[in-house]
């Protein structure tokens, strides 16, 4: 399994996913490709990605939008597209899990020519209050809710991949697991306090994550 993880302060909270999976399954089975915030870093990472064998599973953790997946970013280097729509064939023959905003639209727009074996993507994943739209702010999403949502994301990904790796299950089982796990999370949050506005806001974010997830 390979984890593609662009270097970007805004996604540092996802580091626990890579660290936990390496601790559980070993660095020999969990390979991490960090995309440095430089033109050279982008080029070197693409070469590493091109050399990934067919039938491997890839977890991308970073920023995205409908027409691309982004690479690393720093205060002195703005993020750029790492893999544009028409470049998705770099994932041909592989299972791809895109933990990135709008990766559902990215996968839908490329599935006819991507040659990807199977893929999972998501809609908006607000992990910073600046990314929260007015409608969500009005529903009670604040910094505390965002932090709880970020924790839920990391738990979900770690537990999901641990489940299929420990039981030697096919990639498509991740989709089933995520649906069940998200339903359980939503129920637990709601039952923990129906009148708590933060619980309601978190449940809404989790429901949105579930409803916008795609398996292609």
Give an account of the 3D structure:
This is CHAT domain-containing protein. It comes from Mucilaginibacter gossypii. This protein has 216 residues and is α/β, with parallel strands linked by helices. The protein has one domain: Rossmann fold (3-Layer(aba) Sandwich), CATH 3.40.50. Helix content is 44%, strand content 16%. The chain is built from 7 helices and 9 strands, in the order βαβαβββββαβααααβ. The strands form 2 sheets. Strands 2-1-3-7-8-9 form a 6-stranded mixed beta sheet, with helices on both faces. A 3-stranded antiparallel beta sheet has the order 4-5-6, with helices on one face. β1, α1 and β2 form a beta-alpha-beta unit. α1 runs parallel beside α5, α5 crosses α7 and α6 runs antiparallel to α7. The two termini are 19 Å apart.
